[in-house]
Sequence to fold (190 residues):
Amino acid sequence: MELLSVCVGQPRAVKSKSGWSGIHKQSVSGPVQVGRLGLSGDHILDTAHHGGTEQAVYLYTAPDYAAWEGVLGRTLAPGTFGENLLVSELESAPMRLGQRLRIGEVVLEVASARVPCVTLAERMGDPDFVKKFREMRRPGVYARVVQEGHVQAGDPVELLDMPPGESGTILDNFEAWFGGSPAAAPVTPD
Fold:
């Protein structure tokens, strides 16, 4: 597996929330420092709902992108879902909570699933996108930073040993948030 893209977002005006968001991520070249609170140069403006040590890095995957491109009928640029890291050959839903990944110098630990929000719907230009995201069941992964360092596109990605004990999957975590069927998915604040 390899890291396909590293993305960071600058503050940009949006209609939802406070009027500003860093969801519009763009690929960057060269090494990027990943610290305990995320990627250098990435702006997280709604710290009540995003960021912190438990959501330091948002990771999405090439198979998840391919599924979305099939449904939407168009090519999607890295960063479309607001992710920081885009990884090849890995699906987010079956990843296990507590799973660790080494990406370049960095070690990440899977912390939770991403829950869709109105800002993501605005980013996608589709007011029904929260429901679509829920129905696709490809949430991506929020991760905490276990070992800081630099990452860059092309770095190898390695799944490390699981910590002892049984843990649920990202999809289990995602479904638990909604507690019901995809049709019952609420629109969450971003």
Summary: Residues 62-72 form the longest helix (11 residues). Residues 181-190 have pLDDT under 50 and may be disordered. The first strand starts at residue 3 and ends at 9. Helices lie at 62-72, 118-124, 129-136, 170-178.
